[in-house]
Specification:
The complex is a heterodimer. By secondary structure, chain A is mainly beta. Chain A is built from 2 helices and 17 strands. Helices cover 71% and strands 0% of the residues of chain B. Classes of the chains: A mainly beta, B mainly alpha. Strand 14 of chain A pairs antiparallel with strand 1 of chain B.
Amino acid sequence: MSVYHSINISLDQSPIIAVRLQVSRGISYGLRFWGVTMDNKSFTAWHEGSALQHRPGLGAPETILASLVTESSIPNPTLSLTGARITRMALYVEAGPLITGAFSLYVSSLRANSAQVTKSSSNEVNGNFTALVADLGPTMATKTLYQVFVGLDIKGSSDLSYVPYLTVGASVAAQGYTYVTKIATTYELALLSPLMVNSSPLFSGSVHSSSLVVSAKTGMINFFHLNSVSIRFFVKQTAVSASVDPAIARNLVFYFFIFLFVIPVAMVILVVKVFKDED
Amino acid sequence: MKTRVWATLLVGLIVRVEIASFAGHATDLGFFTYSARLYYETGRFDTLFSSLPLLYYIQLLFYSMYAIIRDAGFPDIVFLYHPNYMLEGLILRIPVILADAGIFYLLLKFTGKLRYAAFYLLNPFIIYLTAAWGMYDSLMMLPLVTGFILVSRNQTRLASLAFVISGLIKLFGIIPFGLMAIDNIAQKRFKEFAIQLGIGSGVSLITFAPYFQGGLENFYVGFVLRFLGGSGALSRSYGIIAAFSGLRFTGSTPLIWLAGAVVISAFIVDRRRGGRSMLKTLLLWSIVAAVSIDIFTQAEPQWLSWVIPLSILYAFITQRDGLANFTYFFGIMSTFLSITLLQTSTYLVTGVGSVLFNGLEALPNSIILSDVTALSMLLMLLGYVILKPTKFKIEVIALTTLVYLQAYFWFSIMKVVPF
């Protein structure tokens, strides 16, 4: 079920939308946006895979933040967003098959604020940040991207947890684990992989460049120093999803099981029963 | 006897080579292949290698054969969706296959029983890890078993060296090393303790030295903290505590420290009582430590294999034939759980996961189902190790099946899970 709401938010001021809501456990929900460009051409400003989609209800109040520029850029990488506006939004709830009961979605506030952007030419920044974006230069081919290692120094509030992303243009090319700060050191060697991409950051870099984005999931970043970025490429077949003829797969698995179970167990039975006297 | 030993060894090697020629864990073999190629294709040493360094050195040594073969113009091929070439993947696993053969030899030599040695070499779980997955736990277990055999001969300094080498491949080897060090302190053998410490630090320093070129911070965070459970990444999800609590730990659960304290205290008390030999005590508490790690950390399924050779050794020195037999069943069941619940049957074979057996694979809450069944087997193993010697009975198979079916019903069908 979806609830639509008309809004009028200019993208020129890098708006961040903050929604305070509470959704019952057992169902999922999400937010979607639509807008128009300066010359009145409409566009969708949401995409599957975004952290705003299919979120499980927690049964407790929560605040969701979304950068409308990022949400618009990802599904429309070539669209000019200068002068564009977000004109419509939807909140939806959804339930899987055979799930019944009384569920609710309660929105207590909905606000849009301009993001405060601090630019720095150094690889070190101090302040209070929700996300950090480091421009790594022109976009790169990501077909053979394998791993990215990022060496960084980070300090923040006691509840700081953050996720590093490598974005290429408007898309997320690699993502890291969720990291928390450690007592032993402020240094972290973060691993990012294309196979781990399951969300997108609140802010992304320029659509014309590759960027490292460190996005706070909880808490604030107070200090950040980028030490190193090592991007690894590996020529191999992509095995995220591929199809093998089920008949061939079944034959191979049976062949595999013969060598894994049948022959060794038969030999052990021989050793235990037939060769017992030799022990 | 000799013919039967050779026949067993040959069967063990043939099944491994056959499986390793086409199967493999796409992600893990991808890591190893990348690092080996990086060195031989660009001359760059991979200071960001995914495992401990000794493994990398061993792999580079064996991979040199492959580099020569490829340079000579051998056209290797990729099988389905695996990241590595077929011969390349096989060569990366040769050191582990040789380690299995080495453990087979050591167990045979120590116990004099072909049956016990075969329980290791022909254990489906060991074959699965070495040949099908491409895991290197056997490489760690070879010096580990050597260490225990050296302890039985009172060659404690050499045993310490063996345990350190084992620990430099997978950290578990450090446990018997640490227990020996604690014993030296408790018995006031300070000179022995100093020598042991010297061996440990010297070998570790030599092994890690090339990694310092990647920067001390990278070494500290990428190796020391990561392998000691102090990483900042909320990454792992295996392990019964994580599965039931829904928590993601930055390393091990805090309960591991409690388990560690219990194991160390029990080891000291056991040594003070003096009823058992050093070998028996060390083996017993190393097995208990391995079980504790499997239960109280974000355990990986391959870690279940550590108890197999240790239990066979313990079974021999304490005449617990039932325990030796149980290790074989433990291996078969662990293989079944790992293939069906953690990977799917096609993943290692084709390089992509897909479900062939609907009722057994890709079940809801499959990690919990696997963890509960593995926990029941680990507790049974502890029973075989600690309680009075018992025969292996068919009822054990029935009991494990019942635990699996109960867990299947509650967690996969009824989906009763706390998180």
